[in-house]
Structures are given as structure tokens and as C-alpha cells.
Amino acid sequence: MTTKFPSHINLPREARADLIELLNSCLATAIDLHWQVKQAHWNIRGRNFISRHELFDDVADHVRAHADKFAERAGALGGYAQGTIRLAAKNSELEEYDLSAVNGDDHIRVLVDRVARYASAVREGIQRTADLNDPVTEDLFTQVLGEVEQDLWFLESHLYGSATTGRQEASPPTIQEERPSLPNA
């Protein structure tokens, strides 16, 4: 049972239980993501170190704040926030951090993957909360998604060159362009 406390929020008990389960799942994923971003923050080396080091800290701060919002909304609905490190590791939707990542581009790639998965979970939360007729939790997820997608954009922007080339700096294309042959005169 996920509802442990009384709540006078005008939602059916079953809907509140589903919402609390969803919020606890996102709480676990947010806690895990926060510490994975900090892993990158502590261990980044290489080109653009300081800008990436600071970006990672900003992203970690955002995700930590999301975790707090998820936990508090679960509590408001009469739930018990399940936010210990062990519970987060057990219930997170993320894979373990790639400990072979050392240079900046490797960390960025790992974080883009994790933040994109987190964004997907939050987006799914928007649909589920709409289905459960809870506009307050839906709005919470919508606000979180806006910040997550902006962080994702900031991270992805470190992987690509100019807008005109659209080429990824970290992994240049391996296929050689074919040159048109000149007609014989």
C-alpha cells in the first residue's frame, strides 16, 4: 500500500496510490541521476573542463530539486516518499554509470543518454497524471520536463559543431563523401 497518511486532496484513493507509485519511481530515477551527474562532475578531465564541470553541477542541482518536488507531492497525496540511496538504486530506471568515461565527450555522451531517459520518464508521467485527472501533478511534471529538456539541449550542444555542418565533433563521420566524376571530354 503506497498511501500511508490521510489526505483530503479530492482524488480517489486508487488514483492517489497510482500517483504516489509514479512519483516514487521518478524520485528514485531523479536521485540516481543526480549522483550520476555528480560522478561526471567529479571525474571530468580534458578540453572545456571548467565549463562542463560547472554545467554538470547545474544539472545535478536541477535534478536534486526535482527529487524534492516528487517526494513532497507524494507526501501531499498521503504517500510515503521512498528516497533512500538504496531504494533509489533499486527502483531507478537508469543503467549504472559508465565508469570508463573520463574525457569530457565521454561524460557528455553518458549524461545525454541518462538525461534523455529521465526526460522520457517525466514525459510518460505527464500522460499518466492526465489519465488520472490530477492537473497539479501533471503541471509539476510539465515544469520539470521543461527544465530537463533545456539541460538536455545544453549537454547535447557540447557534442556538435556548427549548425551549418551539423557534424558531431566528438565522433566525425567515418563514411567518405563520394566526389562526382568529371565527364570525359
What features would you describe in this structure?
This protein is mainly α and 185 residues long. 63% of the residues lie in helices and 0% in strands. Helix 1 runs antiparallel to helix 2, helix 1 (13-43) packs antiparallel against helix 4 (104-131) and helix 4 (104-131) packs antiparallel against helix 5 (135-156). The chain starts with 12 loop residues before the first helix and ends in a 29-residue tail after the last helix.
Name the descriptors.
5 helices, mainly alpha, single chain, 185 residues
Topology diagram in text:
Blueprint: H1 13-43, H2 49-76, H3 85-91, H4 104-131, H5 135-156
Helix pairs in contact: 1-2, 1-3, 1-4, 2-5, 4-5
- Report on the biggest sheet: none
Shape: elongated
Number of helices: 5
Separation of the first and last Cα atoms = 83 Å
Question: What fraction, in percent, of the residue positions are helical?
Answer: 55-70%
What portion of the residues fall into strands of 2 or more residues? Answer: under 5%
Low-confidence stretches: 164-185
